[in-house]
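To: structure subgroup
Subject: Chain for Friday's discussion

All,

I'm putting the inputs and outputs inline so they're searchable in the archive.
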Amino acid sequence: MPNAPLVDVSGLTKTFGADTPQALTVLDDLSMQVAPGEIVAVMGESGSGKSTLLHILGGLDRPTRGTVRIGERDVFAMDDETLSTFRNQTIGFVFQFHHLLPEFSALENVTMPARIQGQSQHKANDRAQALLDLLELADRAGQSPSTLSGGEKQRVAIARALMNEPELVLLDEPTGNLDARTAAPIHDEIETLRRETGQTFVLVTHTPALAAVADRVLRLEHGQLHPISLDEHAA
């Protein structure tokens, strides 16, 4: 790659129930690199380990073996407290279910990562409003999640993931809970966000329409990643 990778994974192995007869290895000596500003999609069958891979990339789970480097940092060389701070500052997460806090407005939900980081309310509110504007939700800032559509809730979740200007954004089936019509604008917005923010995205999806926004598509099978075209996936 022309640039040093933002994400550099080497020898990644994850075994559940190690040292038991029921041991299950879902990631097996896996390696991958993601360049700064790249969108990479990971596809594969249910249970193949896609979400496990994403959780390890984000430091939410630890591997059995192997290393994950994000920028200059070895993710699993950090202690839990340092890793928590690094995750808050460097990585944004979007999950299939938005996990918005129902007692707070859309704007307040978006500000949460910044408030955890210790930013002032005024600065956090300004940043959150700018993100909601970018995602065409300016008029929904004061609304509670219960009044938002499914697509709007997921766009609020994307804004929240971008709040601290993370270098890396991880998306786990971000439109998997939405119908095709509702999901389509979010697919477009991911491309727009990469273009306007320069951030790096790794997304897990079953949906070819979402994978189509990626620069590369990888298939996770038997614990390994393989480059594919969407035509191959359809076949």
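Points worth raising on Friday:
The CA atoms of residues 94 and 171 lie 5 Å apart.
The domain at 7-97+165-234 is CATH 3.40.50.300 (Rossmann fold).

D.
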